[in-house]
Write a structure and sequence with these properties.
This protein has 87 residues and is an all-alpha fold. It contains 3 helices and no strands. It starts with 13 loop residues before the first helix and ends with a helix.
Length: 87
């Protein structure tokens, strides 16, 4: 592993930050809105299955990506290439 620590990536403009924050808010709103609409239609089984799949599949993949990125000190796309080396 390199002894140099590269600087973290940052948003370069205020517009980029605003768009990222808006996208996050819209996504979270859709997630909570889905649960609310499904609960009105007596679809609690779907919501429970959805949450179970998120916890079993998505959470471990997210944690693995974060660990890979920290270990490689690179972005998500470049980390596997950096750690795999050149063959």
């Amino acid at each position: 592993m390199d002894s140099k620590i590269s600087p973290r990536e940052q948003l370069t403009s205020k517009l980029g930050f605003i768009l990222a924050a808006a996208g996050s808010a819209v996504g979270l709103g859709n997630l909570w809105g889905l649960a609310y609409r499904v609960s009105q239609g007596r679809g609690a089984a779907f919501v429970l299955l959805y949450i179970l799949i998120v916890l079993i599949v998505c959470l471990p993949v997210f944690v693995a990506e974060m660990a890979l990125g920290r270990n490689a000190t690179a972005s998500t796309l470049l980390a596997p290439v950096k750690l795999a080396g050149k063959n």
